[in-house]
Amino acid sequence: AGVLAAHKITASSPDTDLPTVSGLRKIGVNFTVSNKDTVKNSDVLFLAVKPPIIPFILEEVGPDIEPRHIVVSCAAGVTINSIEKKLSTFCPTPKVIRCMTNTPVIVREGATVYATGTHADVEDGKLLEQLMASVGFCTEVEEDLIDAVTGLSGSGPAYAFTALDALADGGVKMGLPRRLAVRLGAQALLGAAKMLLESEQHPGQLKDNVCSPGGATIHALHFLESGGFRSLLINAVEASCIRTRELQYLADQEKISPAAIKKTLLDKVKLESPSLSLASASKVSLFTNKSHSSKKN
Amino acid sequence: RGRGGGVARKGACGSGGMEAAELRVGFVGAGRMASGLARGLLRAGKVPASSILASAPSDKNLDTWRESGCRTTHCNLEVLQESTLVFLATKPHVLPGVLQEIRPAVGPHHIVVSLAAGVTLQTLQRLLPAGTKVLRLMPNLPCVVQAGAMVFARGSGAGDGEATLLKNLLSSCGLCEEVPESYINIHTGLSGSGVAYVYLFAEALAEGAVKMGMPGGLASRIAAQTLLGAAKMMLETGEHPAKLRGDVCTPGGTTIHALHQLEKGALRATVMNAVEAATNRACDVAED
User: Fold this and answer.
1) CB B272 to CB A208 under 8 A?
2) Measured between CB atoms, which of A204, A222, A231 is closest to B263?
3) A206 Cβ under 8 Å from any chain B Cβ
4) In this complex, how many residue pairs, one in chain A and one in chain B, have their CB atoms less than 8 Å apart?
5) pTM of the prediction?
6) Is B257 in CB contact (< 8 Å) with chain A?
7) Which of A15, A54, A10, A83 has the alpha carbon at shortest distance from A269?
8) Do residue B218 and residue B133 come from a single domain?
9) Contact at 8 Å (CB) between A277 and A35?
10) Choosing a second label site near A179 at 20 to 30 A (CA), which of A87, A105, B161, B232?
11) Is A228 on the interface with B (CB under 8 A)?
12) What span, in angstroms and rounded, lies between the C-alpha atoms of A241 and B258?
């Protein structure tokens, strides 16, 4: 999106064999195996590890967190409170922001929400928003909504991929070559989403606009309704949200099963420092004048 | 403008000149649908009771008509002789016979409106004198309380004047729209029978409330009022029902939880099935 020069980004991981590592290197991101280096070279720190690893990471990098740092956790189900608690042993007023994004950030059509922690200023939130808005939609929410967002737009792309796979199957069944079927299905969903985002109209109305009386579409929709299409989607969002909460609960208990952490990783990690290290981090140059006068809206 | 005090004008070309108040309205057949329409017209004050004449083979149905002040007879021909606007409201299988019977008395001044389900304009026109102004009407029961939904289609002999007259008259009983004949069976599935679907839904709503501890009578009245209110909002705001539904759903609230249950039960598909089944049945019956 051009908001950040690659050399201003630092990423770290103990496992250098990951395909993502070479990908990051190729685009010019600074890569290191030391999480401490990442923290030292950053102002905005994205914690992009799996949720069970977060407590270990915080233990490791805690001592290096300074007042300037904005710690952004993308870990599903990990509360701001749990991060602040862990960091407060090292730093009295850690700035924490919790965010939930989704994979289409890759194509700059992400859906991101964030909630600011106790010590994060309005400007800190706005900075994150500016960054994430460059890769899609981004808005601030109350933290208690983030699980629902996970269920909807976090997992959402998976629902869409499933739907697209099936739509393509339908096309193939009726005689289309697979590649064309996939292409057309994806374009249909893209176009529909775009229409909805650009329209004032309710999706129900947009649906009606496509259904000529007695025509093909309404016949098809009847099948969808008969199959409980809508309720399946509601169920899916609900299930994802509930599972996120379960994981959060488990994490809060700090009952992290070592099985949740790949064995090789655990060993490698134990070799380094007292606590585990697996933080990917980014450094952001503050391209806005970050004044500390708070503007109360 | 024909102010002949209700005297039938021969060769009236139906410019809508006849006022409803002078109209003499006849009903051949005096069953539930006919009396529903008549009651609607009376309640709306569109037609005085004395201008309404109904015929039926027995007195069984005619008592209530007389109580309202309408005139009654056992002679179908008399209805034709006395009335300009004639509603044919017999049971469908009886109608062909009745048409044979009244045919001699049907003239160019008559406006014949058939309520018989499944009897096409083509059939009606075949059994009546050529050029007769024939229309086909599909009402529904709430015409009785002036909240009906009616559609009508015109035959080849009926012009704009007849359509306008009928629409103006029947608007007093509810919604009345002209449609192509092919929509009539769909209207049956949607609204003719549809009224029954609503009663079923209302009953179920009330039953749910009873299960949760509310007395049945109260639950029933509230259920009915809920349906009435929701329908009124739809009609008055003109907003899409999906939007109105969304307006009621607070995030994480009671409504969305309940709606999820309805979706799980595939209510939408079931309702679509019902409309389809009734419409198909109407088509089947028509072909017999």
Assistant:
1) no
2) A231
3) no
4) 39
5) 0.77
6) no
7) A15
8) no
9) yes
10) A105
11) yes
12) 18
Q: How many domains does chain B have?
A: 2
Distances (CA, A) of B94 to A195, B23, B101: 54, 27, 11
Query: Does B240 lie at the interface with A, CB-CB under 8 angstroms?
Result: yes
Distance from CA of A242 to the nearest CA of B (A): 13
A 182-201 residues with CB below 8 A of B? 201
- CB contact under 8 Å between A231 and B266, yes or no, is yes
For residue A141, is pLDDT > 90?
yes
Order of strands, edge to edge, in the sheet holding B174-178? B71-73, B52-55, B25-28, B85-88, B111-114, B133-138, B148-154, B174-178
Min mean pLDDT across A115-119, A158-162, B17-21, B98-102 is at B17-21
Considering the four listed CATH numbers 3.30.360.10, 3.90.1150.10, 3.40.50.720, 3.20.170.30, the one that applies to the domain covering A6-143 is 3.40.50.720
Choose the CATH number for A155-237 among 1.10.490.10, 3.40.50.970, 1.10.3730.10, 3.40.50.2300.
Answer: 1.10.3730.10
Whether A215 contacts chain B with CB within 8 A: no
- Residues A209-237 pLDDT 10s: 999 999 999 999 999 999 999 999 999 99
CA distance B128 to chain A (A): 33
Return the bridge partners of A63, or none.
none
Residues B124 and B171 in one domain: yes
> Across the interface, which of B240, B241, B264 has its CB nearest the CB of A231?
B264
